[in-house]
Each structure stands twice: as C-alpha cells, then as structure tokens.
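2024-03-11 09:14:02 DEBUG pipeline.ingest accepted 1 chain
2024-03-11 09:14:02 DEBUG pipeline.ingest length=79
2024-03-11 09:14:03 DEBUG pipeline.predict start
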Amino acid sequence: MPENKGGMTVSEAGRKGGETTSERYGHEFYEEIGKKGGQKGGQTTFKRYGPQFYEEIGRKGGHKVRDLINEAKRARGEM
C-alpha cells in the first residue's frame, strides 16, 4: 500500500484548481476559452494539411457510418 505523505494526487489538484477557476471566472469563461481553442486548432490543422485533408476524413467518416449501418442490418437479419 502506498505511503500517504499528506499531499494530494494530480487528479485532486486539478479538480481543486478547476473549482477555484470556476468560482472566480464563472461558466462563461470556459465557454470562451473552449471556442478559442477550437478555432485555433481548426485553423492550425487547415494550414498544416489543407482542404484535401478534410475531404479525406469526411469520406472515411461516411464510409465508417455506412459500414456500421450495414453491420447492424446484417445482425438483425435485414440484409
């Protein structure tokens, strides 16, 4: 059994920091930084890989959904 040295785990520290930030800045703060992060991430990805990347992953996603639907139909005996 690990020895308890009186400190807190990383998880506990993160939770405590998140609660403090939430109390200090409110729910809107998280919405704002989430939107900024999503925009910056998307812009960076677009600059790095270009529009063809999005076309490719869109096709892959569509194929995956189609395959899952067909698999479910086969399992139910509909095909």
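2024-03-11 09:14:41 DEBUG pipeline.report The chain has a mean pLDDT of 86.
2024-03-11 09:14:41 DEBUG pipeline.predict end
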